[in-house]
Amino acid sequence: MPRSRVFFTSYLVPPMKIYCDPLAAFVEIPEKPRRIVSLASGLTECIVQMGFPHLIAGVSVWCPNFTPELEAPIVGDYLSVDEEKLSAVQPDLLLITTGVQRGLARKLHKAGLPIYVLPLQNSLHGIFENIMILGALLDALPAARALIARWQETFATFRMQAPHPRPRVYAEIWFGRHVRMTGGLTFIHDLIEAAGGENLFGEVRKGYLELDLAEVERRQPDIFLVYSEPELPVQAADLARERGWNIPTIQADISPPHNIIHDGPSMMKTLAWLHTQIRHLIAGK
User: Which of 77, 94, 168, 249 is most solvent-facing, going by the fewest CB within 10 Å?
Assistant: First the structure.
């Protein structure tokens, strides 16, 4: 991205100079950002839920799924931006994450944009840490703490309703054609446990695992939970039938509240949905 194509509003006061660990560099952002571009839907939803939708000047193509009330223009997707559209909104803070977005983050930083990179989360605790960082960037720590408190209370309420014994839930995640099993180092594990299930691979010290159907069968799951994306929809009931599994299924997808891989506040609604699904399946046995 040529530096000449980038334009953002001048600072009214001297900017903050803070260290961004994922970039291994200091970045300069305003004391109080007023034109935020967020390329991560979870962060966008957090800003809205904290009470600052008016600060969002641009979003990614995925953000409207979780913040349909926003009228901010789409300036890119998860892996790229439209330079003209990004320049037009004049951002004074651009938010992005690590993982597969790391390359785009480095490119935007090199181009001179006021960017801050937040780490991908391994657990619900990581999500809360990012909310605190977001609150600090926006000079809105009380709002960040309030959102975290509401989130924690919601999870605690559902955990208290967990059945005994918990059903063993096998979660299979389809990222397009790439399929993974869910280990213990992911917030999907936290979601399943709070909803009343026991993650089948919860003791494994990884986030996502290579598919191993023999091991799944050996562990004898009670419920089969499948997430897939619109580009390659995969039906849990069909997979179970093809594999000869006589276990009840739960179908998750990209739409709220069925999106178990989304890390924004609507996770609280996803928790309620998943809890209801698990309770109904248990009652139907």
Answer: 77
Is the fold of 3-152 the same as that of 161-283?
yes
Residues of the chain with pLDDT under 70: 1-13, 285
Query: Are the C-beta atoms of 247 and 130 separated by less than 8 Å?
Result: no
Q: Which two tokens stand for residue 282?
A: 């248990």
CATH class of 161-283: alpha beta
What gap in Å lies between CA 31 and CA 144, rounded to an integer?
17
Residue 103 token pair: 């390359």
Q: What is the pLDDT of residue 13?
A: 60
What is the per-residue pLDDT for 14? Answer: 73
| Euclidean distance between CA atoms 57 and 9, whole angstroms | 12
Sheet with 36-38: list strands edge to edge: 74-76, 56-60, 36-38, 93-97, 115-118
The ranges assigned to domains in the chain are 3-152, 161-283
What DSSP letter does each residue of the chain carry, written as one string?
--GGG---PPPSSPPEEEEEGGGTEEEEE-SS--SEEE--HHHHHHHHHTT-GGGEEEEETTGGGT-TT--PPEEE-SS-B-HHHHHHH--SEEEEESGGGHHHHHHHHHTT--EEEEPPPSSHHHHHHHHHHHHHHTT-HHHHHHHHHHHHHHHHHHHTT--SSPPEEEEEEEETTEEEEE-SSSHHHHHHHHTT-EETTTTSSSSEEE--HHHHHHH--SEEEEE--TTS---HHHHHHHHT--S-EEEE-SSTTS-TT--STTHHHHHHHHHHHHHHHHHT-
| The pLDDT of residue 12 | 52
Q: Are 125 and 135 in contact (CB under 8 A)?
A: no
Would you state the CATH architecture of domain 3-152?
Answer: 3-Layer(aba) Sandwich (3.40)
